């Protein structure tokens, strides 16, 4: 290591460690061990523009081991991102730009929110995939307008998580050669030596997934790291895992122990570490001038890289004007003007239709007009109706294919669509059965936290799926998804509400979850019911009581809306006049002005909600004087109509409960 | 294949396929392809007693590919379990013993509920682990009282799921030589050829995990399957994966296509299949007499096996009476009489204590008296305080160790503890941070569905964990867990409530989730507050209003109880008299008689609930006239007390909202 490199590496180390020390909180172990690999990557390879973190063709860098955030903040600061040193001094403090784990959208240069292990690994796969798909779509001979790497630093914890296994297998299948992960192989976990629980042969495992695996025996050997990354870049057909043997807490008295993982060194050990590595003791957050000058060359270099790319884009625009126009629209995140032109309108005469089927039709109508629309299913595409017909299968042989086969890997699917959305240029979707949203919940939460524009399609949305039984029947899932802050859940009642839901899913920012039926449901006449205006408001009066003054308001979502409509008829025969409110989305309804909400759920009428899921939460809408028909138990295996009927989802029961509520 | 074997295999095939056909629903593909391997396993190896499915030392068999349930039901019927043929004819019908996917506790002989892929794989690891631990604890020279295999049939879908990767790595680390999985390698998934998404080298991957991998190139070659299973049993140090190349829908016109995976063959294809395999066309559910006689030999053999084992147990009882007494207690699922003798009582004078710390002390007090108590953490044991001090680490070198190092593998951990509980002889626990319950949610749901007696320990239970920030701060998790039917969630307020919660966790059947603080909280004086009686009822009046007639009831859970207590004091200074209700468990409270519930949450007082999580759901307890202080957004990174204060969890805010509620 030459002197300048040495200085730079130690600058990163101690900026990070000083930040942790100042905060009395954080993880010094990773930065001390992994600073050399981070430095080599950023110094010799990373193509980025610190003054424009949003430059579309930048290399992506993910710190999947998000607990090492202090290292990332050190990098961002010294390389000239808009992250003043003051912010490093406010590490983990209220309102700072340097939270405990990196947060996308919060700190310039942070590409993804990480910390929950394995997520960063899988999001990087999504980024590399988006790059590959976009390159296929836009690059022309002599015009590599999309051409960048996706790098990451991953930890043993990342590799232990199942989501990483899933994502690694897909990256191998898709031959994402521009995906390069440096594995901080420090042999230590929180509970002790990795041997306690991690004895597998990582190299063989990743080779089995179709990766190139390279080994750097000494994590302080910058030249060896450089050679390995070079070799990783040279391999275009396989993603690369560079196993870098490091020492957690390098240089500190606690080196190679779990004690240095997640707690500040403390003043004495910090002093000893600085002494051991030849660092000035007296000035925390010290950045030698030569080091800073060296780091900051990245600012000029980055500006040049982006200028060169802009020049390439200018030439591309002349040579391939249509393509360039589409590309620029996509980079801005704009939709084509006519994006919704083909969306279908369904007529009751067409007969009943499952909302999953309507969704599939809407998706195909969108696919034609929205070239960024791309996604797939966790091996359930025929059931979730999510195939974009005629748009090919994504994979290296057909990198332009827009149908993604995720295999039975819901969790990686969730994170990969997050990664695609973070990359930009894609509006991704991910589909499975509603009950299996459990498998991907940690990724859905991150989508909500990052507000990525991803669309989760969850079909088979109730016990009405029937014979597959309780393991496949969602009961608590609508409510569990509604519980996640920042996620919009939509459960449309019919084919036309489904189309309206898709409009929202495409236009609205942030993640969306659609809950769709397996079974057929009647089509609501769009000329009779105010669907197009109603759905975006989350809830609306589908049918008024005959005299306009409801004795009772029946609220329902999804397939249960049709039961409510039928119950309304029955009640009318008994002189009870009911409004029926369709409520596809709690989140959208809660956003409405109080006056609108009162208009829909008027306080002067008792309310009965019907939804084939747990009742908890409905009290917010029906109030003390209302009632809820729901399901506070698991379902059962039998034909769907039987299950519904036996568990109380029939017209008779609704009428009975409505009358009981009215004291009749 | 000799004639009888042939007959037996086809009997299984067509019982399954006829059941699917009759139900017009189900999965014929797997039974047709996998019947030979199932037959060889059950015919030549499986040690079980069909007339006593609960025989403790039986081999366990798990159909991880639960969608092939019809094959399992066929096996159970022909081998003489209490599953009449009539039940196969009622496959997937309301009230039948043959639901769409196998359900533990519902059908005799079903060892685990499967269907959600990967779960069965991981639960089998838990069973093999329990066997290993119990063998270590109880076996003596000449007395192998615990000595059985755990077998399973797994599918490509199982192997794709991350949970299986996690579990496989652990099984390799723990060298579970008596775990043997047959992999139904049929090259077909729902979306098409497995090559679409599953190109990895399964053999190398599992060898990397430390497994023995054996290959059977022809899934109809019974002799080769037998040799492979024999070889698997011969390997005592490594779990074995036998890759059996099969043909989905074997013999049918749809063989080797996705079309035969999940839909009935239909009458024509069924006829063609029976013709192709030489099966009588006219009688569905046909069981040749010779085949049945052959299968049913298992009944006598099983009785003999159990008798021999009983004889062994009798001799063991004489030779090792104490050990035998413990073993028999454990088999009955009984607790030692003095199981709770060491549970601590905490005094306020000891100073404040985090409930995670109190939990750790309670656990260690239990460990001494409850030898079945065993578990671990997903690499967070020092933080979750879940180490059983002095009880060693589980692993082959120390199979009696009771501390399990799961690594960063929450999902497998959840399923493995399910498997341990299903096996019997262990009361297992699994620990991680509350926010990471998301990673294991599918396993928690199965625990609730199966009502396994497992204890989930979720520490760092609110934004009060502080600096780690929103990726680590649970907000929606308490409510999401409460949403799962059959799961009991307990969030104790202090050290003594924590001990009371542990009592419930040990004594109550079914799964339990404890939510515990990272931060210190005051200790409530057990002589002053009715903790021991109150906690089991889910909610109780901790302190009454001074005059006994509350102007307002403050309801809180966990650490927020102390805020409520302080707010009560402040309110009293302003002449407002408040009850404080501690509500550690909604589920337990909901089970109480109406009269008790009214006594605690009397309808004539306005109620204000305080919990550092989403507000949704609280309306059920506070009613229209009440209010909720919660958090309907993500948290933030800063010291815990700062985060709490900034987000409204302080005494002043509670007082303010209480007064507002009272219109003052």
From TrEMBL, chains A, B:
GO biological processes: pentose-phosphate shunt, non-oxidative branch
Keyword terms: Magnesium, Metal-binding, Thiamine pyrophosphate, Transferase
Pfam families: Transket_pyr (PF02779), Transketolase_C_1 (PF22613), Transketolase_N (PF00456)
Cofactor binding note from Swiss-Prot or TrEMBL: Binds 1 thiamine pyrophosphate per subunit. During the reaction, the substrate forms a covalent intermediate with the cofactor. Binds 1 Mg(2+) ion per subunit. Can also utilize other divalent metal cations, such as Ca(2+), Mn(2+) and Co(2+).
Keyword Coiled coil: no
Binding-site list for substrate: 27, 261, 356, 383, 460, 468, 472, 518
Cofactor(s), by name: Co(2+); thiamine diphosphate; Mg(2+); Ca(2+)
GO cellular component: cytosol
Listed GO MF terms: metal ion binding; transketolase activity
EC number: 2.2.1.1
PANTHER family: TRANSKETOLASE, TRANSKETOLASE 1-RELATED
Assembly and binders: Homodimer.
Record-linked NCBIfam families: tktlase_bact (TIGR00232)
Family recorded in the similarity comment: Belongs to the transketolase family.
Protein name as it appears in the record: Transketolase
Organism: uncultured Acidobacteriota bacterium
């Amino acid at each position: 290591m030459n002197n300048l490199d040495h200085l730079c590496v130690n600058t990163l180390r101690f900026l990070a460690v000083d930040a942790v020390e100042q905060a009395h909180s954080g993880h010094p172990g990773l930065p001390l061990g992994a600073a050399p690999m981070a430095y080599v990557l950023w110094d010799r390879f990373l193509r980025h523009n610190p003054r424009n973190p949003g430059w579309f063709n930048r290399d992506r860098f993910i710190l999947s081991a998000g607990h090492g955030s202090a290292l990332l903040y050190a990098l961002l600061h010294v390389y000239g991102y808009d992250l003043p040193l003051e912010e490093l001094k406010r590490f983990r403090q209220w309102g700072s730009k340097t939270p405990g784990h990196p947060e996308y959208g919060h700190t310039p240069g942070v590409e993804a929110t990480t910390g929950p292990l394995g997520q960063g690994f899988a999001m990087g796969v999504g980024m590399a995939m988006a790059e590959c798909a976009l390159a296929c779509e836009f690059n022309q001979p002599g015009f590599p307008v999309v051409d960048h790497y996706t790098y990451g630093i991953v930890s043993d914890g990342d590799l232990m998580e199942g989501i990483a296994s899933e994502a690694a297998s897909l990256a191998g299948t898709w031959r994402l050669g521009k995906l390069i992960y440096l594995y901080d192989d420090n042999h230590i976990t929180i509970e002790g030596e990795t041997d306690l629980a991690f004895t597998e042969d990582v190299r063989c495992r990743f080779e089995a997934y179709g990766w190139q695996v390279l080994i750097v025996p000494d994590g302080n050997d910058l030249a060896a790291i450089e050679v390995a990354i070079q070799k990783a870049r040279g391999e275009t057909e396989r993603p690369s895992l560079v196993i870098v043997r490091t020492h957690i807490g390098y240089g500190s008295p606690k080196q190679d122990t779990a004690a240095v993982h997640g707690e500040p060194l403390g003043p004495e050990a910090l002093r000893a570490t600085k002494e051991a590595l030849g660092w000035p003791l007296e000035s925390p957050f010290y950045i030698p001038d030569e080091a800073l000058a060296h780091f900051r060359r990245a600012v000029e270099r980055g500006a040049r890289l982006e200028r060169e790319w802009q020049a390439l884009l200018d030439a591309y625009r002349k040579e391939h004007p249509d393509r360039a126009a589409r590309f620029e629209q996509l980079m801005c995140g704009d939709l084509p003007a006519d994006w919704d032109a083909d969306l279908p309108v369904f007529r009751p005469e067409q007969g009943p239709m499952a909302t999953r089927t309507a969704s599939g039709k809407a998706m195909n109508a969108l696919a034609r007009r929205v070239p960024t629309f791309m996604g797939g299913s966790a091996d359930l595409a025929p059931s979730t109706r999510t195939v974009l017909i005629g748009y090919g299968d994504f994979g290296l042989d057909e990198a332009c294919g827009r149908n993604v086969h995720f295999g039975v890997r819901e969790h990686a699917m969730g994170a990969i669509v997050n990664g695609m959305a973070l990359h930009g240029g894609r509006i991704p979707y991910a589909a499975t059965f509603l009950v299996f949203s459990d498998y991907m919940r940690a990724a859905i939460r991150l989508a909500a936290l990052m507000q990525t524009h991803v669309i989760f399609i969850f079909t088979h949305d109730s016990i009405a799926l029937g014979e597959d039984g309780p393991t496949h029947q969602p009961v608590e899932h609508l409510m569990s998804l509604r519980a996640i802050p920042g996620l919009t859940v939509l459960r449309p009642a019919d084919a036309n509400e489904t189309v309206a839901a898709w409009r929202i899913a495409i236009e609205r920012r942030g993640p969306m979850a659609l809950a769709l039926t397996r079974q057929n449901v009647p089509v609501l006449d769009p000329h009779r019911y105010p669907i197009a205006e109603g759905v975006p408001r989350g809830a609306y009066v589908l049918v008024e009581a005959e005299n306009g003054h409801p004795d009772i308001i029946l609220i329902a979502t999804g397939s249960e809306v049709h039961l409510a409509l039928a119950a309304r008829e029955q009640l009318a025969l008994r002189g009870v006049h009911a409004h029926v409110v369709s409520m596809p989305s709690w989140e959208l309804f809660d956003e409405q002005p109080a006056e609108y909400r009162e208009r829909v759920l008027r306080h002067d009428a008792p309310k009965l909600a019907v939804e084939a899921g747990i009742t908890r939460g409905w009290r917010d809408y029906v109030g003390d004087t209302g009632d809820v028909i729901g399901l506070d138990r698991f379902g059962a295996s039998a034909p769907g109509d039987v299950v519904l009927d036996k568990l109380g989802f029939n017209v008779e029961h609704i009428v009975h409960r409505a009358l009981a509520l009215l004291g009749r």
